[in-house]
Amino acid sequence: MPGSEVDAGPALEAAARLGPYFAWLPNALGPSDGWRPMADLLDPAVVAERVDAGRRVLCRMSGLSSDEIEERAVASTIFLGLASRLLSPVLAAATVAGVLPLAESARLWWRPVEGGPMPIAFAGLPAVDCAEWDAVGVAGAFTRTAIRSLVEPVLDVFGERFALSSQVLWGNVASALGGAAGMIAGHSPHLAGRSAAIVGAVLATPPLTGMAELVRPDPDRARWFLVRRNCCLYYRIPGGGTCGDCVLTPEDERRRHWRSVLSR
């Protein structure tokens, strides 16, 4: 991979300033502190535990019984959150610091929590300087490392264990990237164009080709929004409704949401 290799730590520190979904913690501690190797998330039994935990949280929040909350819908939303935690810090580091962390599963750990962003830690993670690369170059490297090597194996486990289609799961990956680009734009408007260009190029690259597109509703504002061509299934959870980027969201409702964001 062209570009000089550097330490990922400073770039990930810069990414973490954007918020909890962008934060990977340096220097993971040992098993006694609850940290588990990322490879554990390739175990269907461990993934099922995480989905059960999410289902319990939804039951407490909604007052519904577990029988009323479809396991597949919970599994899809849990995977979306996990994809966001795995991809957002890498995208932010590349956008904010011009450094692409080479996200190796063997150098990452996670810690189970009942709700909120899953804590993820890293140690000795390499990175490559991508400040001078164009968006297509960053997208290619991002796809090979963060998406294909890190996220896709977890996606395959969720798909097989919960009979979720690849369309739904890859759409969730696209949604995670769109959400990250939106949060980067909200925090650092001057970086909105760079993050959108990278995400747009990733969406044009297999396996995300055709899953979603970025739309810029106001040509005078550097703010893009994701529109999915599929659904994460959250609407199947009683009271869940549809997300702003969902293919099922009516166009007028989607545009009202965009106007609300642009008016802030």
Task: List key phrases describing it.
9 strands, three-stranded antiparallel beta sheet, 264 residues, alpha+beta
Explain what this protein looks like in three dimensions.
The chain is globular and about 50 Å long. It contains seven helices and nine strands, in the order E-H-E-E-H-H-E-E-E-E-H-H-H-E-E-H. The protein has one domain. The mean pLDDT is 94. By secondary structure, it is of the alpha+beta class. It has a four-stranded mixed β-sheet with strand order 2-6-5-3, with no helix packed on it. A three-stranded antiparallel β-sheet has the order 1-7-4.
Quick rundown:
Helices cover 48% and strands 11% of the residues.
Which structural category do the helix and sheet elements fall into?
alpha+beta
Note the run of SSEs as H and E: EHEEHHEEEEHHHEEH
Shape label: globular
List low-pLDDT spans. Answer: none
Helices and strands in order:
Blueprint: E1 5-7, H1 9-16, E2 25-26, E3 36-37, H2 44-62, H3 71-97, E4 99-101, E5 108-110, E6 120-122, E7 126-129, H4 135-162, H5 166-187, H6 192-203, E8 212-215, E9 225-228, H7 251-262
Parallel strand pairs: 2-6
Antiparallel strand pairs: 1-7, 3-5, 4-7, 5-6, 8-9
